[in-house]
Every structure is written in C-alpha cells, then in structure tokens.
Amino acid sequence: MQVKLHPGGPPPPSRRLAWPGRDDRRGNGLYMAWQPLALLQDAGPGRNGRWALFSLLALLAWLALEQLSAQLWFLPAGLRLALLWLTPSRRWGWLALAEVIGQAIKSVLLGYALFTPTFLAVCVAPWLVYAAIVYLLRGSRPGPPPDSPTRMLLFLLAGLLGAAGVSPLLWMFLVTYPMSTADSLASMFAFMYGDLIGQLVLAPLLVAVAHGGLRRSRHLGLLRDLGLVLLAAMAMFLVLQAYADLATYVLLLAFAPLFFLGFRQGWAGGALGMTMLGLVVQGLVQAGFLSVNVTMLQLVLAVVGGGALVLGAASTALRQSHLALAERHAELAVKTRELEALAAELGEVGQRLVRLEEQGQRELASELEYELGHAIHALGTRISLAFRDVRDEQGTRLLESLREQVREIQDSLRRALRQLRPPQLDSHGLRQALETGPLREMLEDSGVVFEPRFEGDVDALGEDARTTVYRICQAAVREAVRLDVVRRLVLALEVGPGEGGHRVALTLDLEFSPYAQHLPALEPVPGIKDRVVAVQGEYLLEPQVHTHRHLVRFVAGFRH
C-alpha cells in the first residue's frame, strides 16, 4: 500500500525536529510547544540554520551583557558557563563562533588589533579554558539540572575552576605595568571574582529558565519570598549608607536572606534571588548609595550566594524525593488493593477446590460402598450358604478362613470410607466426629493418647468450616501416626464470635516421649497449611518442651 503526502502537510519524520514539550491539537495538525532546552540539547546532525540563528542571538546577548558588566561582575562569563553546561559538546563550535565574533566586534570598536597574541589570549583562550573544564567535569553530553547538592557543587566548581584558570591569562596580557607579588595576586583574584560573580548572578538563572524551573514554581509564593528578601537587603543597605563603619558586621546580614529564599523556593528561586540582589547591589553602587569595598561585596556575595544555591538544591532534592515517595506510596496502595482483591479471589477459588475435593470424596465413598460393599456382602452371604453343602472338615476350615478374610475386608473398607467422609460429621456434628470418630481410632491403634478439648459452640460452624477443622485435625493425626516418638496429641478447639463470622482458634500439641533421643524438626504440615491458605487463615508453629505446637486461626462465615 502506498501513502501519499499532500502538499502543505506535516514533514516526514526524518526531517521533523523532535523537541520535548506539550502536545496541543490545533486544527488538523500537531503543535509542539517550544522549549529553550530542546534546541540547546539537540545533538542530531544537520539543522545548521537553526544553530546559526541561535549563534547570532548568543552574539547579541554577549554584546549586551558586556555593556552591563562593571567592576562588580563580568556577566558574559555567566552566559558562557550556562551555554557550555546546557549544550552538547558537538555544538560548541557555534558557541565559540558567537563569543569570538563578539570579542572581535568589541576589539574593533575599541581600536584594538585582531589576531594578535593579546587578542588570542584575552578573547579566545578564556572560552577554551571554560570548555575544557566543563568537558572534564561533565563529559560530552549536556549537563543535568543542578537540582541536588552534588550537581550544584559540580556546576559551581566548573565555574570556579574556569574563573581561576582564566584570571592568570587576563592579568598577564591586560596588566602592563610592573607589580609586586602581593599586588599581582590581588589583581588575579580581582579578575577571578569578576568572572565568579558574573557566573553566580547569571548562569544559575539561565539554567533554571532553560529547564523550566521558574515556570513550574509557585509564582505567588516566589514573588512574596523574593520581595521579603529584597526588603531585608535594602534595609541593611540603608543602615550601611547611614553607618559605613558597620560594613564588617552588617554586610553579611544583607545577603543572608538568600538562604531563606533557597530553602523555601529551591535552587531556581535561589538563582532568581541571586540575580535580583546582584542587580540591586550594582544599582546602588553605581548610584553612589553603597560605599562598600567592591572586593568585600564580591567575596560576601560569592560565599553567601554559593551556599544559598547549594541549600536550594538540597531543598529541591528533598521535595522531589518526597514527591517520588508519595507517588511510590500511591502505586503501592494501588498494588496492595489489587493484591487484596486477588487474594480474595484466590481464597474463593481455594474454597471451591476444597468443596470439590470434599464432594469428590463423598461421591467416592458412596460409590465404593455401593459397588464394593454390596459385592463383599454378597460374597459373605454365599460363603455362609456354602456351609450347608460342605460336609468334610477341610472344606469347613477353608470356608471359615474365607469368611474371616471377608470380614477383614469389610472392616478395612468401612475404615477407608470413614476416612474419606465420616458419617458422624454430617449426622452428629463436628464435636462428636472428633471425640469418637475415626481419628481417635487411628491414634489408639498407634498407641497415641488423644485428648480433645472444646470451648464455645463448635457445632454452630457452617459446613465449610466444619470440614476445614476436621481435615486439619486429620492431617495432624496422620502426622502423629507417622512419627513414632509421639505419645500424646492434645486438641483444643475454641469457637467464639468475631467480626463477620465465627472466630476459630485450633491448637494441636504433638507431645513426644521424654525418652526419645532424637526429636523431628518443627516444620509446617502440608495438609494443615493447604487448608489454612484456602480459608485465608493464620498458621503458626511454636516449639515447646518435647512438644510441637501447631496454631491455626481463621474466621468462618455464619452458618446459613
């Protein structure tokens, strides 16, 4: 069968850009909601046009951020770190092209020569240093969102190492007059702090926007908490404006509310707070309302901002773990209900199988009694009639022997029929069937003492419950007969009212001879276990002194 694509229809799957997002029906087509992260993390072949456009936008953003840079920060360093972190290494060539062209435009506007050692060291080498460090820490694949303390520390470490690696190059080619060792180190730290503050103020916010962290936040709560943080910071800055000597004691308090924002709103909220607070600080410094040493501002903002971001990542990870745990609990609750329903169905199936087994044994007993019983009775009658025709002593002895064998066969058949289905269980009830039925005869024939004890209305149980109790006792009796060292079997049956039916508690104690040298291991009896599972009861084993105790508890429905 051939499928034709009409003009204007959707492009073939091989040429379609698979961007993750929300599917929305518009007309007869499929609309894919655009996300910034989709293009940034696209590592497929082709699509050079889109990446050329993105490179142009990155170039314009770099030029704009460079104009906003000041002594407090170098904002293009934040853009550089964020794009390297979000983009697969296969696409880094477009990022390098955008930054190098931006540096070239800046150099041309300032009248500097291009393609000189200074241009290469100041405009090209920093990007290569950042790219190498990010590649070593992250690999070729896009970096994950820093939503855990470990990931956030790795992200901040990449920026710190990049700034530390670039600062010696900038000092070497931008500082042209001689300096002492202390001044040289101070100059390197100044370059490093400029890059680091630019990263902290811009890079986490860009990553948060790309990953949709702010879009998924609770906007009202975020705006409220952000307003409180800015008000607290402004109050501290007003104090510093009035009393500049208090900078050593008050400056840290101005940035401390970032911890509150990170704890309340996660790492995305902390990133937004860092950007807003940085803008406030830069605005106050440029307006002359904040006369604090820039290096001190950078140091405090780096320490408090980094700590707030790590705390926010820990808070986000904790919330995500709580959500995952809640979902897991919901799934387990659903599975539990399914298992309960399945257990109820299996219980019903088990009851049906037990009833079929009992019905089969009843019918088998009836057939054996009808077929074999009548045949054996007829054989005995013929042997009795044969006595009239036999006159010799040898023939009489033979007939006596045959008649005795027939009586033994009749007795064995009667015992077998009582084991299959004792008539007393249907005619006289459970209690008499246990006290004087075939189970006592089996134990007496094996030399085992039988002590039954009853409490409650035993005969009030329904047919299924009576059969279950009797078969459990029968399995215990067979176990006692099988073990040669059992000297007594104590049966305690208690029937009382319970929720939804009769509460049945059956205790079977198999007492061993005190002279037995080796006692058998305490193991569940299969016959007991199968019956207990069929009624969804409880089967426990308790070792006693020279005794194995089998405890059975279940709830039987009311007798109909």
Automatic annotation (TrEMBL):
It is found in: Cell membrane. Keywords: Cell membrane, Membrane, Transmembrane, Transmembrane helix. Residues 53-317 form the MASE1 domain. The keyword Membrane applies. It holds the Pfam family MASE1. The keyword Isomerase does not apply. The chain crosses the membrane at residues 49-65, 119-137, 153-174, 186-210, 222-240, 246-263, 270-290, 296-318. InterPro entries: MASE1. It is a multi-pass membrane protein. GO terms for cellular component: plasma membrane. This is MASE1 domain-containing protein.
